[in-house]
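Hello Y.,

Per our agreement to keep a running log of every chain we model this quarter, I'm adding this entry. I've kept the format consistent with earlier entries: sequence first, then predicted structure.
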Amino acid sequence: MGRLSGTETALALVVAFIEKDTWTQADLARRLDVGVAALRKRLHELIEAGVPLEREEDSPHVYWSVPKNWIPSGVRLDPSDVAELLRLLARLPSSALRNRIATRVLQGTAHARPRTTEPPPAVLVPALDPHEERWLSTVEDTTRASEVLSLNYLSTSGGGMQLRQVSPHRVLVGPPARFLATCHRDGELKWFRVDRVLRADSAGKTDYRARSTDELDDAVRFSVNGFRSGGALTRVAFHVRDPEARWVQGNLPQPLASDPVRGGIRVHGETAAVIQVARFVVGLGGAAVPETPELSAVVRDLAEAALASLESTAQKTSREDRALVDATTSGEAE
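Predicted structure for the entry above:
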């Protein structure tokens, strides 16, 4: 009895309640090897210090407990939960933040010794671009808080860096990471890529432009690879022959779906990004045949533009080759 100092007893009590939520007074006294009177004194000291201890009598026992999942400045996880948490962390894109959190989890877990935080070779994950990682947290925080986001944004369509204010609504982690936001310039819903953000700051809630959940869900659902034109939904459909159909079926961009047909599959859906679907179809070459008129027209335009570019390049190359031959022949004649 009385082998522990007062401080040591208090620390041992905290450890005991981290391991288990509820103890009988007798079991707790045996665990700490102290007398019941000394134990009660330390328990009341913990209560005065702010530990949420509760006492309950059920003759002949006295029970002491803390709220479920209580732990000072942390969260208690079972060993199986820690293993699953590490598994989920390993599936995230590799980044400094992910590796730091994984290291903290490993070092704070008694049953696991510190080791490399990189996922095993069998689990391959893309690395998050450092530039993307720098601004992703700001985008996420302002989206959750419904705050306006002030950006320096590198626009591919607007010719270089632009100052933008947007109201972010949804974040698609990717990669590449994108966020859906209302652009304050024209009031349109648009996708923005995080790796094109040069600076990002919260501009507060005052001018935030909210959207309905249905509108946002539709914008996400009918986008293709993070692209939408902002126009009306268009029905698209195309056929893909075997054997290419088997690859296409497993790599369809959302929100397209497929049905088996004789000799291949029929792909169909609605989208506000017909040009993205058309690019997908053109990439399949002769294995895909567009069915709907809107898709057919865009596919034809893309294919003709590609052929025109190819012919122009071929003609230029031919002229350069002829000039080289002429120069060589002239030099030999001299």
